[in-house]
Write a structure and sequence with these properties.
The protein has helices at residues 11-18, 29-38, 55-63, 104-109, 125-128, 130-142; strands at 7-8, 40-42, 49-51, 81-85, 113-117. By secondary structure, the chain is an alpha+beta fold.
Amino acid sequence: SARRRAEWASPDELFERLSGQPPFSTWDEAALRAYTTHGLTRDASTGRYHLACPPLFEASVYANRHTASLDDVLGDVRARVSVVRARDRQPSDPPGLGPSATRIESVAAFPVVRDRQLPNASHFFPLETPALAAGLVMEALAW
C-alpha cells in the first residue's frame, strides 16, 4: 500500500511491528528477521531506516500487474519448468496474496512443465516454511 509506513528507528522496531500482523505473523522467524534487516536502508544523516522499496513504487507495481503479460511467449520456453503453486482462492478469503496467484492457463502454456500445488500453503509459503521451499528447489534442480 502506498500509505505503508516507510521509516523506522531500527530493523528491530520493524521486526517487532511486523511479527504481530498478517501476513508476516505466519513467516518463519529467521525469514522475517532477514526481511527486516536487509529490506531497509540506513540514512547516514539521520540514523533512521527506510524501506528499500518505497511504498509508492511497490504500490505502482501492484497497480500495473494486469498490464504486462508473458502469456504469448510461455510456449517458447524450451527448458523444463517446475511450478509450485499455493492453494486455490476460497470464497471466504479476504483480498490479498494468501492463495496462489498463478493461473493454471499459464502453467499449461509451458511445453515441458511439472506442476505441483500445495493445498494448504499460502502464497508466502517460501517465507513461512523455508525448509520446504529449499527442498522443492533441490527437487526441481534434480529433475
